[in-house]
Specification:
alpha+beta, single chain, four-stranded antiparallel sheet, 36% helix
């Protein structure tokens, strides 16, 4: 987890590997199901439908960016392995 004044960034592998005691895969899917990206629907589709499987297969890493002000999921970032 990485923090700035405005955002907190989580690697979804933290959830999948049980490194975050509060959340697991089911909660991760719930968070992702509520994510929307009007500017890029491909990003939204990837986050909801493929990001977890890609992380499990170590094909890519997805980062969730949360606003520290309201804890709302603000963005999803992907890095290919």
């Amino acid at each position: 987890m990485q923090e700035t004044n405005k955002y907190t960034v989580f690697n979804i592998r933290e959830y999948l590997n049980g490194q975050n005691g509060e959340l697991g895969e089911d909660e991760l899917f719930q968070i992702l199901s509520e994510f929307s990206c009007e500017k890029n629907k491909d990003v939204e589709r990837f986050a909801k439908n493929q990001s977890v499987e890609f992380a499990k297969k170590q094909q890519s890493v997805t980062y969730l960016v949360f606003s520290t002000e309201d804890a709302e999921l603000a963005s999803v970032r992907r890095r290919t392995c």
